[in-house]
Amino acid sequence: DRWKSFDLVLPSLALSLLSALGVDPVLERTIGAFYRGHSRVFKMRSVYGDEFKPSNGAIQGDASALLMVNALYSVWRRALLQAAPQVQAFVFGDDTKVVAHDLPPEQFKAAWDLTVEFDRDVGQVPNHAKTVVASSRPLAATKRLAKSLHPSLAAAKSAKSLGFVHRFDRARVAGHQAT
Questions:
Q1: pLDDT at 179 over 60
Q2: What's the rounded mean pLDDT across residues 85-114?
Q3: 35, 84 Cβ separation under 8 angstroms
């Protein structure tokens, strides 16, 4: 999970990616027109502020918002698989997972660093409080790996994602996910 992921999406970047990925130009123009033309209003209790046009942010619940976020993270997935072909990367919206069998900690850290760099480059902010490093290795070793990635990351023998529990206590597997 990313912190306020949909709010931080840059529609112009996401639309450029959709175009590069081969989305029908009519769909791209329609989504672009919607995001260029819509406005928002800040509301607190029963008081409404002035109308404004946001420069970023995808509207949660809008199908095109999920398409834009998935376009962003499909680029991350491709870059990660090019840099570390031995990992598996999974994406659903801003929920990403990296799974690696018998990957040395320094290579796993390189995959993590690529993810952090990607998030920074596209304006996203990782939510470390919801990120778990899970491994079949002893918990102490998993904790050391988690802390080497970021001081606030948790270590575990399992991780939940979209209601599914991924267990890492049977095979030599390390994974990080933001849920």
A1: no
A2: 83
A3: no
Burial class (CB in 10 A: 0-12, 13-18, 19+), 62: middle
Question: What pLDDT is stored for residue 47 in this prediction?
Answer: 94
Question: With b meaning 16 or more CB within 10 Å and e meaning fewer, what string describes 129-168?
Answer: eebbbbbbbeeeebbebbeebeeebbbbbebebeeeebeb
Q: Does residue 70 contact residue 5 with C-beta atoms inside 8 Å?
A: no
What pTM was estimated for this model as a whole? Answer: 0.79
CB 18 within 8 A of CB 68: yes
Q: Which residues contact 179 (CB under 8 A, 6 or more apart)?
A: 1, 95, 130, 131, 132, 159, 160, 161, 162
| pLDDT confidence of residue 92 | 80
